[in-house]
Structure formats: structure tokens, C-alpha cells
Amino acid sequence: MGQAGIWTTIAFGFYLSGAIALATVAFVLWPRRQRLGIAATATLTALLLTAIWSITIAAGSLGALGAPWGSLAESARNLGWLFVIYRLFESDGRHDTLAPIRPVIVSLGFVELTHLGIDVGLAWLALEGRVMHVVFEFNVLFRLLVTVGGLVLVHNLYVGGSREARGALRWPATGLAVLWAFDLNLYTIAYLSSGWPAELGALRGLAAIALAVFVGLSVAHNRENLRIRPSRAVTFQTFSLLVIGVYLVGMVAVAQWLSYAGGNFARLVELAFLTLASAMALVVLPSRRLRAWLRVVLTKHFFQHRYDYREEWLRFTRTIGGAGEGAPPLGERVVRSLGDLFESPAGLLLSPGEQGELTLAARWNWPAIEVPATALPLESQLALERTGYIVDLDDLREGCLPAEDMVEPEMPAWLREDARAWAVIPLVHYERLVGVVVLARPQYVRKFDWEDFDLLRVVGQQLASYLSENASQLALAESSRFEDFHRRIAFVMHDIKNLASQFSLLARNAELHADKPEFRADMLVTLRNSSEKLNALIARLGRYGNAGIEGGGADRLEALRTADVLDAVLERFRGAAQVSATEVQDLEITASRHSLEQVLVHLVQNAVDAGEPGSPVLVAVTAEGLNARFEVVDSGCGMSPDFVRNRLFKPFVSTKSGGFGIGAFEARELVRAMRGRLEVESREGLGSRFIVHIPLAAAAGIYQTLTRNDQKVA
Asked: Using only C-alpha atoms, what is the Rg of the chain?
């Protein structure tokens, strides 16, 4: 197969592939044609006409069809796309305001039809020699006229469109621009060379394939956001391959030139050159410094921005959010997230100590540097906090002065004298310095520019917020421990106050009734109960430290009889005639006897205090489903719904003079610790009802099963 046969095969393959791609896109777009708007029918028709044109040219390349059929198909193709452009103008609403558009399209259509008629007419004539050359130039000029006019229309279609319309016009306009731009170059070369460029014409089917791809993209869901642009990684790798290719081509060219020189000496020089060039390639190309330099050059000259912000932000998020078992501490992750921006291999984090001085908080791959106890003087801290100045230590060593409106903070000797120290980045959160990062020198060092400073300030603010949040969490945990301690002391004070009141009452009564045997017997009972309460208080105080207030501090749960518990509570108020039991069902429950008695005594005492002297307080215990229901009812002043909802069970809020405000809160928590619940019903002026639900012993197994299942789910 000769060279002509090879190009004929290539042309047939590309044109046939273009026809298949165009037909496929047309059939795929048919059920989605509504996305093309009013230009849908015209676009699908133009795609099919272009597919027919590709098939016709492919058949003509094999000699199956004559030249007039190819010219007819190309004219139909151009007319179809001119009508598509008009419909796109109409869909954008500009066919009424841009009056020159319609005459231009009509004129181009007339030129295409005229050319078609003349071309078909001349095909029937037997022309030779000079006349055929004139006919060829005539055909090419007509094609150039339509092609240039089509490109002008495509340009006006896209550039004149609104911002909202450009998203839909971008891809079809790009496809038509590729098709007609290729034809422009093809026909220009044909006119200048006075002959058909077979090699370039064989590649014409690629323009048809590109047209099919771009028209297909025009109906994508995210067509407004689609961009065809390589990533920085792909660009860098492509450029690296290009450099390697240029190197190899240059090496082969020099070797070939030396071979032409001939002679034994030339052969020796050729071998020496190949050896030296190969050795340089093995040493230079794997160099990190060279790759860093290439990346800087590419970023500077091939991209509007140096950084691929999407990749940088994803990497930053992965680094700073890499918590969990085995992950480095937060301080190291902070330093690394900044170091990755500049490929810095190491760094330090300095953070304020107890007295506000900056001290070493974390190291990342930098164990050798010696950091003093006070890493930065107070003046430098204040300057960094006030200005947020990013210090380039190389400029500082070289004596380069900062801008006139910026005062460079003074850096200590340990930073200026260590040649590996490169940059100092302050981390400022709400005008407060929360840390300083010192980065080590990377493999390839360059000067900071505006984009570096902008990125460092944004990342620095984000890191400062992470450090501030972490410090707040630590402070909150410490505060929570102190709060737990204070609550424990408050509960202790509350119980001690009650015991002190009993002892005071006992002392006053002893002065009057010490000689009575009955009083002495009651006094012994009271002292014994008080001693038991003090011991229980000490035991519960120890459990508070482990379970916390939410644990309730309840004693061990055991099986009890409700009648025994209620009798013990009523015995405590034997001297108060207004306290009486209305109904007592003897039920078996699972609870802490001491905690339950403490809750009921507290509720009864509050009921006595809330009412007028002598007003009745009724106590009852009944069965309710799986629970025993204890009720304490009074006819006192009652409480408002707002008080019950927002203040009754809030610790350290009390309506009593000198009260601690934790009795109701402690009662509710003790009931919860016994797997029960405490409810309140109250009306102002009528009284209140406190209801304590405690599980029956028969339901204890059910509650334990539910608790275990909840723990497994959690």
C-alpha cells in the first residue's frame, strides 16, 4: 500500500467514525430533545445531515460516489447548521433585537444554494486544463465565504448572549467553531496551494467527531458547570513527558549529526555523548529540587493561580481532621497542614503558656532544634497578634526591609541563627494570638508572593479556630469537673443543713424534756437515724465522683415493700397531725430504701412548708401498670407552669430564704437512678401533686433487658 492508500484508509476511518458518532448522538438526544428548546428539531436534523455528509465523503474516498454527491452533502450540512444558529438566536430572544442576523443567515444560505447549483451544473460538463483550475478555485472561494460567515455567526451567538444563556450555548457553539475552523484552514491551504491537501483532508472526520461530542455535552445536566481543562497534576506530568521527549529528540539529533560526520573519532564522540547524557538524565530527572522548580515554573506561567485550591483544601481537611486512635496529636497535625502547602519537611508549634508567653507546644519531624523556655519575647507576640505579619526569615537574615506601613516583629536569636528555620506564621483568632507555626526550609525555596500570603492567612485563621475550639473543649471539661465537685458539695451542705436542723431541734427539746423516758427513747432513735444518714451521705458522696450527678448517687437497688417505706416516712412526721395516708397498697418494688425514703420525706416536708399551718398533706401508694405510684398532695399555694417547667428542677435555684435549691433536683435524679420518674401537677392557689413512679419487682427483669439493649444500640 502506497502513501496515498494509507491516507485514503485514514480518511475512511475518521469519516466513518464521525458518521457513527453523529448518528449515535442524534438518536441519544431524541428522547431528551426538550433540553435543546426550540432548536431541538433543527439540531437533530443537522446532526443527521452531517452524518450523511461523513458517509458520503467516506464512500467517495473509496470511489463509490462521485464528487457532486460530496458537494451536495456538504451544502446540506452547512444549510442545516445555519438554520440551527438562527433557531438558537431565536431561543435567546435576540432575533428581534439583532436585525442584521436574519439577512446574514439568508445571504449565506443563498450563497450556499448558488454554489450548489453551479457545482452540480459544472459536474455535467467535460472541463479540462485551465478551466478545471478556475472551477476548483471558484468552489474553494464559495466554501471559504460560507465558512467565514458561519464562524462570525457563532462568535456573535455566544459573545452576545446573556450570562444565563451562555451556559446552554457554550457547547454547541464550540462544536460548530471546531467544525468550521477546521474547514477554514483546509480551504485556505487548498486555495493557496491550488490543490486539495489530501493529508489534511483525511483528518477532517476528527472535526465531525468533536462536533458530536460537544453537541452531546450541550444537554448534560451540569452543562453550565462543565469545563474542559487539565488538572495541575496532569499538566505537570504532561510537561515532564514533554521535557523528556525533547531531551530524547535532542540527544538523538546530536547523535545523528555526529554519525554524519563519520570517522572513528566521531563514533567515539557519539558514544561519549550518549553516556554523559544518560548519566545526567539519571541524576537530574529524579531530583525533587528539579521537580519543585518545574512545578513553580508551570504554576507561574500556565495557570492563573498557583494553587489548586480544591486539592489543597481536601488535603488540609484530611490532615487536620485525621483524629482517632494512632493519629498524631492536634499540634503536629496543625504544623503538617501548613508544611504541606510548601512541601516543608518539618515545623514547630508555639502556643501561649500559663503566663501568656509562647512556649513549645508540638514538634513535627524537627527533634534537633533547641527551643528556649520562652520561645518569643512579649514584644514579638504583640506585634504578630496586632499585624498578623508572616515573617520570611531569609529576608530577615538578608536585611530586607518590610513595607513602609508594616513593622516586622523582632525574631529571637535561636530562629535567626538556625539556617533550617524558614518562615514564621502567626495563628490569630478574633484578634488574639493562639499560636505560631515555624516551618523548616523546603527542598526548593522561593519568595512568598500575594497568593502565598492570602492562602496562609486563610489557613492560619482556620487552624487558629481549631486550636481555640480544642482549648475551649479542654477548659469546658475542666470546668465540668469543678462543677461536679461543687454540686457534690452543695448536696452535702443540703443534707448537713437538714441534719443540723434536727440536732438543733433535739437540743432545744432536751432542755425541756430530758428527764422523760419517752423523750430519751425518741432521742436515741433520732441520733441513730442521723448517724445512718451521715454514713449514707459519705457513701453517696464517693459515688458522685464516679457516676456524677446524673448517676443520681442512688444506693444499691433491692426488693422492698411499699407499706414499709411509707410507714417509715409517716413515722418521721408523726408529730405533724396534718400528714396522713389515704390509701396504702402493699406492693413489692425494686428500689433503694434510703433514697426512696429521702425523696418522699423531701416531698412531704415541702408540702408541709407550702401550705398554711394545719393544712392537710395526703400520702398514698397504689399500683399503676408495671409501677408503684407514690403520691404526695398538698393544698398550698401551688406553682405556675413556667416555674414547674423552668425553675423547679433547676439546681441552685430556690424560693426559700437561705435554701440551696437542689432538693427537688436531687429528688428527681434519685428517682431516675432507681429507673423511675417524678411528675408534678400544680395549680396556683389550689395546691400541688407530686407523683413518684417506681418499678415493681416483677418488672425489674424487663427494665434490665431494655437497659442492656439501649447500651448495645448506643
From this structure: 46
Distance separating alpha carbons of residues 50 and 18, to the nearest angstrom: 9
Considering Cα of 300, then 305, then 311, then 316, what sign does the dihedral take?
positive
C-alpha cell at 431: 484578634
| 708 pLDDT more than 70 | no
Q: What is the pLDDT of residues 692-703, one digit of tens each?
A: 999 998 887 776
Distance CA(23)–CA(30), nearest Å, equals: 11
Distances (CA, A) of 474 to 321, 427, 467, 468, 567: 18, 19, 11, 10, 49
Which class for 480: exposed (0-12), middle (13-18), buried (19 or more C-beta within 10 A)?
exposed
**Which of 299, 331, 336 has its CA nearest to residue 317?**
336
β-bridge partners, 688? 634, 682
Q: What is the pLDDT of residues 578-597, one digit of tens each?
A: 899 999 999 999 999 988 99
- Identify the top-confidence range among 6-15, 150-159, 173-182, 281-290: 173-182
Vertex 294 angle, CA 289 and 298, to 5°: 150
Q: Residue 628 phi/psi, 5° resolution? A: -95, 135
- Under 8 Å CB-to-CB from 522, ≥6 apart: which residues? none
What per-residue string of b and e applies to 694-703 under the rule 16 or more CB within 10 Å gives b?
A: bbbbebbeee
- CA gap 198, 376 in Å, rounded: 75
Residue in 672, 636, 652, 646 with CA at minimum distance from that of residue 554:
672
pTM for the full predicted model: 0.39
